[in-house]
Write a structure and sequence with these properties.
The chain has 285 residues and is an alpha+beta fold. It is 24% helix and 27% strand. The protein contains 6 helices and 13 strands. About 8% of the residues have low confidence.
């Protein structure tokens, strides 16, 4: 049980009790989400912990919604700028999906036939801004029925979601190794597909397309998979100079952005454009 005792006088603020606070700042990024999910899975129903981080963990919230919709609550206790504290409560028992990043090793490499350099695609040295595009191109170039083994230093969950969005039913995704140092995924091409006009971009890019004028900054996050557009726009808001407006171009109406912007002190005016995209103008209130 990690719920603080209301009668205890040892800790004045129960939400800062070391028994409740889970400080993830020192945890390496490649295993951070795995440890957070495991901490939450280990909770009894109706118990909580306080996640302490040095930035807003928005991507984690969307991963929780994807994996455990309805089984948790997410409540900001503190929202920066130096510390972010989130109260995460477990509402009901759950069974962890097989694809949940757990950060555990998958055992030794005995009898592993998937380490041929001609088969393994090591994407660790590839810059983030072009990584996903190169992965998709490698997969598109495969003959039907063939595969490659993706080698990465963290669980490529967002990439899997992009594959599901762009090529649902045309690929197979099989984990061969799940950390903590290396992640290997066997990605097989099940049927012929038509390549999109523009290959999907990846999360972790250096920066989205951005234009800066004297009083307007424009950011174009079209082509990115949720929650990446929201994360990019919120990052841009955090660094927006005083007196400058932000114009964000997205593929769809950014419904989640409006509430997040309002909480940060920004107004939002969103209109659909002739090309089908959406332009949202954000300004400090």
């Amino acid at each position: 049980m990690n719920t603080p005792n209301p009668s205890s006088a040892v800790v004045e603020d129960p939400l800062r009790d070391p028994r409740v606070v889970f400080d993830v700042r020192p945890i390496p990024g490649r295993v951070k989400h795995a440890q957070i999910f495991q901490r939450w899975l280990d909770l009894p129903v109706n118990e909580f912990f306080i996640l302490l981080n040095d930035h807003d963990p928005v991507p984690l919230r969307y991963q929780f919604e994807r994996e455990f919709s309805g089984a948790f609550t997410w409540e900001y206790v503190e929202r920066g700028p130096e510390e972010f504290r989130v109260k995460i409560t477990k509402l009901q028992p759950v069974i962890a999906p097989l694809t949940l990043p757990r950060g555990c090793g998958s055992g030794g490499h005995t009898a592993d036939p998937h380490r041929d350099p001609q088969v393994v695609f090591d994407v660790r040295p590839i810059p983030g801004r072009v990584k996903h595009a190169q992965i998709f191109q490698r997969w598109l170039d495969l003959p039907v029925g063939k595969f490659f083994v993706l080698l990465n230093d963290h669980d490529p969950v967002p990439l899997r979601y992009q594959f599901e969005h762009e090529f649902n039913g045309a690929f197979a995704w099989e984990y061969l190794e799940q950390g903590p140092e290396e992640y290997r995924v066997k990605i097989t091409k099940l049927k012929a597909v038509h390549a999109p006009g523009e290959l999907p971009g990846g999360c972790g890019c250096d920066s989205p397309t951005e234009t800066v004028a004297a009083d307007v900054r424009e950011i174009d996050v079209r082509g990115l998979e949720p929650p990446e557009p929201l994360v990019r726009v919120l990052d841009a808001l955090e660094s927006l100079p005083a007196g400058v407006k932000l114009q964000a171009r997205t593929d769809r109406e950014p419904c989640h952005l409006f509430g997040e912007a309002k909480e940060r002190g920004f107004s939002s005016d969103c209109t659909q454009q002739p090309d089908g995209s959406w332009l949202t103008v954000l300004a400090r209130v």
